[in-house]
Design a protein that fits this description.
With 198 residues, this protein is mainly α. The protein is built from nine helices and no strands. It is globular and about 55 Å long.
């Protein structure tokens, strides 16, 4: 009788593959690796997408992806890791949702797939080829599963809701921002050149 079976091997492959993809995306956000923008670039991107405050949102997304992905690959604290990664992907889904489902049109297909996969691993467990199994499933108890997913669902709903309010809010008035009214804008420099030519 072997110590593990095909299910354990399958979970190992799924964990490592999914975790590596998530961790790579998180490393782009946190450290600027693999052509990513790092914290500063991700902060600007988060603010442009409506996530406030931008820096904290960038750090949370990066940690959810990098930390959740690394823990999934190791099979440690699997419920919390799966929930964290799924929560990060929920934010990404909210950004891509207006473009529809399929990734080819900029839709949410890819983050949704990663999120569901991470969540499924978190609920199923890491299998026997994991650090959770090696540590006696101390961080893989039923109460951990419930707490992690309920907490993440509430946090993700709050973040997505705040973003929806931010992008739906009217832009500040020109008077309050100190910007010039459209009628007060100086004419482009090339206008005078055209008039001289004519």
């Amino acid at each position: 009788m072997t110590a593990f079976n095909r299910r354990d091997l399958g979970l190992l492959v799924l964990r490592v593959g999914t975790g590596a993809v998530l961790a790579a995306h998180g490393a782009q956000k946190l450290f600027g690796w693999f052509g990513g923008g790092g914290i500063e670039g991700t902060t600007k991107a988060m603010e442009a997408m409506g996530f406030r405050p931008g820096r904290e949102s960038a750090i949370a997304a990066g940690l959810g992806e990098a930390g959740g992905g690394a823990l999934l690959a190791l099979g440690l604290a699997t419920p919390a890791a799966g929930a964290a990664a799924a929560g990060a992907m929920a934010g990404a889904v909210s950004v891509h949702a207006p473009s529809g489902f399929f990734a080819m049109s900029g839709g949410y297909e890819y983050p949704a797939f990663l999120g569901f996969t991470a969540a499924a691993i978190g609920v199923t467990g890491a299998g026997r080829l994991s650090l959770d199994h090696a540590t006696g499933h101390v961080l893989d108890r039923p109460w951990v599963v419930a707490t992690a997913f309920i907490g993440t669902a509430l946090a993700a709903a709050a973040v997505v809701g705040r973003r929806a309010e931010a992008i739906g809010a009217p832009l500040p008035d020109a008077d309050s921002s100190g910007a010039a009214e459209p009628d007060d804008e100086p004419e482009p420099e090339h206008t005078g050149a055209r008039e001289r030519e004519s």
